[in-house]
Design brief:
heterodimer, A: alpha+beta, Rossmann fold, OB fold (Dihydrolipoamide Acetyltransferase, E2P), B: 558 residues, mainly alpha, MetI-like fold, 74% helix, globular
């Protein structure tokens, strides 16, 4: 990645509102064609970061570079206005102008740039087709459905071929089913156009599904940057383990080295577990264990097997969620709907040392 | 940013401009209120609190004011509450139309109300009293030239204000709050007492205080109906003090400032209650509570709802119309003599035609210059990150806390003492109107500015539009309905303005409302009726356009 000039570079970015610090010194790069997600709970500074890149927010210090050009820097005293940055953005509220038709909305960026009439028409037609809104060009935009507004907003954002596309929680106002559909379409579109994108969301499922890389933020700082798999399988902090995916937190303490280069960890409940040695030498007194990585079986053996009793069973359709009482504490376990146990059943609970992340 | 450059010098300039407009007269007013020497000299030679102490040596005026305002408030809130309850909670026929009509009494103004009720219930000559005496009674049915009469007229007018505030609090109540009470087993009555009433109380309470504050500063009704019987409230006493010889500006200013202080305190209390106690608006959504089915009772309730419209708008206008076409105001058919003379006289009178022309001109000019200025201010205050936005908003809203009559007094005193010779000209009236209508304009435009989602503008910037391009293609078109509404509201307010005008009007710069009052106090009611009707028609044409605009945007602009 270092060989290629990053499209977006954010260096030591700090954004303050009065005394409140919204973004507290963050750094990241985004390579051309990449889709990176800023993921975090509300108030973590992800939207502020995005808006700073767009030029809609005035940071307090640090630097932002687009295509190697500094667009904001307090040391260079540079602040390129939003309209000169060549980025485009899809807003959470869609921001469809109600006094214009669909065509006029989509054509806006082209007309601002004084594109010739014929080019405007062909470009608008092209992008409307991409978002499957070709029949809607002459409709007034004030009575479109949520999903249609979303599509128009995307069409408008890509119509003038921006360098960088920013998404501010674009799917949060759609219902669950439409959201899942649009997620696939957005990813498809982004791949097709090969457009560098920064995507903000608080929905971890969405972030994992759509991104090349995920940046998890909390309280204005970056908790972890990595591929969706890295974030899910190797959370770097308690916060990430808890916020992304479903995980059990098992308190206890490290007892010393175990077999196969693993560590021995004594859970507060009394059992000793075999866990993977942390790669970066860090380690605290909690083990994070994904609910999906725990096996249940009438009897089993091998690593980390503890006896358990099914305390509660909740059928979710795509999976069954069990609350299992065990010496390692009460564990949340997700199994496919084919693995069905009644409440009160006695089971063996097992999991691999590699899935036990010491944090 | 280039655009920031523009914003950078526009903001301080506008701040300075508004600051001068608002503060300059107030400084004079405050200084003058402490002047205990010769009232005619400025700056004062002797300063002291004598003027304020004097106020309490004559407690009758204070007592009169409190009693008229208090009684009128009780009446107005009762009207408003009943109307609000009928129109938001019951299923009476024609509810939507009635709700729109409920705005009309507000545009009738207390002045027109007072004149027409004077025509209806004036001693001996009032139309109703004529009928009453004709039926064989030896005295009047009711004498409107009394504290009761003043309160009645003010209550009819302020009833709409109470209605708007109370019905807003009723509408913002989530019906599920009542439904859950019913589901939990409470009876209809228990639900009404334990859930509905506490939810509505803050709205009613703040409406009461707000209306009371407005009543304290109201002038027209007490002026038209109180002066003939020498019944004075604070506002009319201020006016009286400036007419005495030598004019006692010091005492007038002290009264005016005390009145403003009382109003600010009361309004502050209303705001406090609103913030403290309005559980009802937690979600900020507007609900349409399921209206009660009330069976045959609905005809009675509909009659009551219409009754208010009839008494506050239709009956007064009919009385004015009838009178304006008669030689002598009468309802005895055999004595009626119809004529157009009143209208001819009105237009032929040396001062009146110019008064109409002046009022129209002022309305158009003030609205046309005011809307863009206030529009820019509203945008800066509610959209930009400019420093001192809060100070700017506060400054612009100050005239609202000062009764117009008092502000007029300050302006009068301020401009008499300045070497620029604009006293007694339309220029001064224009400046005065602009200053006192700034809060109205700002409120109206702010309502629309805040409705326009910020991201609509931001999106234009991100799409590559510079500030001016974005303003032209996005912001202004989206604000247009609000700007038109603000224009019309300022126009309407200018055309019917009385409080400021009575002080600032000169022999060559007459305007309509004071001219009507003068004619009422000095000549015939028939002539005044004709003039009042002409003014009302002017206002109602503007109101009709306003409603049209409001309906097109589908929101309440007023």
């Amino acid at each position: 990645m270092s060989a290629v000039q990053p499209r977006i570079e954010v260096k030591d970015l700090v954004v303050k509102y009065g005394d409140a610090i919204a973004v507290d010194g963050i750094n990241f790069d985004i390579a051309p064609g990449e889709l990176v997600t800023l993921l975090g709970p509300s108030g973590c500074g992800k939207t502020t970061t995005l808006r700073s890149i767009a030029g809609l927010e005035n940071p307090s210090s640090g630097a932002i570079r687009l295509n190697g050009q500094t667009v904001w820097s307090n040391t260079e005293r540079r602040n390129v206005p939003a309209e000169k940055r060549g980025v485009s953005m899809v807003f959470q509220s869609y921001a469809i102008w109600p006094h214009m038709t669909v065509f006029e909305n989509v054509a806006y960026g082209l007309r601002v740039r004084k594109a010739p009439q014929s080019e405007v028409a062909s470009n608008v037609a092209r992008v409307l087709e991409m978002v499957q809104m070709q029949g809607y060009a002459d409709r007034p935009s004030s009575n479109l459905s949520g999903g249609q507004q979303q599509r128009v907003a995307v069409a408008r954002a890509i119509a003038f071929s921006p360098n960088v596309l920013l998404f501010d929680e674009p799917l949060s106002n759609l219902d669950a089913k439409l959201r899942a559909e649009m997620r696939v379409e957005l990813r498809e579109l982004q791949r097709r156009l090969d457009i560098t994108s920064l995507y903000v969301t608080h929905d971890q499922e969405e972030a994992l599904a759509i991104s090349d890389r995920v940046i998890v933020m909390s309280k204005g700082r970056i908790e972890q940057i990595g591929s969706p798999e890295e974030i899910y399988n190797r959370p770097a902090s308690l916060f990430v383990a808890d916020f992304v995916g479903a995980a059990n937190m098992i308190p206890g303490s490290v007892k010393g080295p175990g077999p196969n280069g693993n560590l021995l960890f004594e859970a507060a409940g009394g059992v000793t577990l075999e866990i993977e040695t942390p790669r970066h030498g860090r380690g605290g007194n909690t083990v994070a264990l994904r609910s999906s990585y725990i096996h249940l079986a009438p009897t089993s053996g091998g690593h980390n097997t503890v006896p358990g009793t099914i305390h509660r069973r909740m059928f979710h359709g795509d999976f069954i969620q069990y609350v299992v009482d065990s010496p390692a504490g009460q564990l949340i376990v997700r199994r496919p709907p084919t693995e069905s146990y009644a409440e009160g059943s006695v089971v063996d609970v097992s999991f691999l040392p590699t899935h036990c992340i010491l944090l | 940013m280039r655009s920031q450059g523009i914003e950078k010098w526009i903001a301080p300039l506008l701040l300075l401009f508004c600051g001068v407009l608002v503060l300059y007269p107030l400084v004079y007013l405050v200084t003058e209120s402490f002047n205990i020497g010769d009232a005619q000299t400025f700056p004062p030679e002797e300063m002291g609190v004598g003027n304020y102490i004097e106020l309490f040596e004559e407690p009758k005026v204070i007592f009169n004011t409190l009693w008229v305002a208090g009684f009128a408030t009780v009446l107005a809130v009762t009207f408003g509450f009943i109307q609000a309850w009928i129109l938001t909670r019951t299923a009476i026929p024609g509810r939507a139309r009635l709700e729109r009509l409920m705005q009309l009494p507000y545009y009738m103004t207390p002045l027109i109300g007072a004149l027409s009720w004077g025509v209806l219930l004036g001693p001996k000559t009032g139309l109703v009293n004529q009928v009453w005496r004709n039926l064989g009674f030896s005295s009047d049915f009711f004498n409107i030239y009394s504290p009761w009469g003043i309160a009645w007229v003010m209550a009819l007018f302020e009833g709409t204000v109470a209605f708007v505030m109370i019905s807003a609090s009723m509408k913002s109540m989530d019906p599920s709050l009542e439904e859950s009470s019913r589901v939990l087993g409470a009876s209809k009555l228990r639900t009404a007492l334990r859930i509905t009433l506490p939810m509505v109380t803050p709205g009613v309470l703040s409406a009461t205080i707000f209306v009371f504050a407005e009543m304290l500063g109201s002038f027209a009704a007490a002026f038209v109906l109180g002066i003939p019987g020498r019944f004075f409230v604070v506002t009319t006493a201020i006016w009286e003090a400036t007419l005495s010889f030598p004019p006692d500006y010091g005492r007038a200013a002290a009264m005016g400032l005390s009145l403003s202080g009382a109003m600010v305190l009361t309004l502050g209390a209303a705001k406090f209650i609103m913030r403290k106690g309005s559980y009802a608006t937690i979600s900020g959504k507007a609900f349409r509570p399921r209206p009660m089915e009330i069976g045959p009772m609905r005809w009675l309730l509909m009659a009551i709802a219409w009754g208010y419209i009839i008494v506050s708008v239709i009956l007064p206008l009919m009385a004015l119309t009838l009178t304006s076409f008669e030689r002598f105001a009468t309802v005895i058919v055999s004595q009626m003599q119809f004529t157009f003379d009143n209208y001819q006289t009105a237009m032929a009178m040396g001062s009146l035609a110019p008064a109409f022309a002046n009022s129209l001109t002022l309305g158009i000019v003030v609205a046309t210059l005011g809307v863009p200025t206030i529009g820019v201010l509203a945008w800066i205050i509610y959209r930009s990150r400019m420093p001192a936005r809060g100070a700017m908003e506060f400054l612009i809203m100050v005239p609202q806390a000062v009764p117009r009559l008092v502000f007029g007094l300050g302006l009068l005193w301020a401009w008499i003492n300045i070497p620029i010779p604009i006293y007694g000209t339309l220029w001064l009236l224009g400046i005065a109107y602009f200053t006192v209508f700034m809060p109205l304009g700002l409120r109206t435009i702010a309502g629309v500015v805040m409705q326009v989602d910020k991201s609509l503008e931001e999106c234009a910037r991100v799409c590559g539009a510079a500030w001016t391009y974005q303003m032209r293609t996005i912001t202004l078109p989206l604000l247009r309905p609000g700007l038109i509404a603000a224009w019309l509201l300022i126009f309407i307010a200018s055309v019917r303005e009385l409080g400021v005008s009575v002080f600032l009007m000169g022999p060559n710069s007459k305007v309509v409302a004071p001219a009507i009052v003068n004619s009422w106090l000095s000549s015939s009611s028939e002539l005044s009726a004709a003039m009042a009707l002409m003014q009302t028609v002017m206002v109602f044409i503007a109101v009709a356009i306003l409603f049209r605009v409001a309906r097109r945007v589908g929101g309440d602009v007023v």
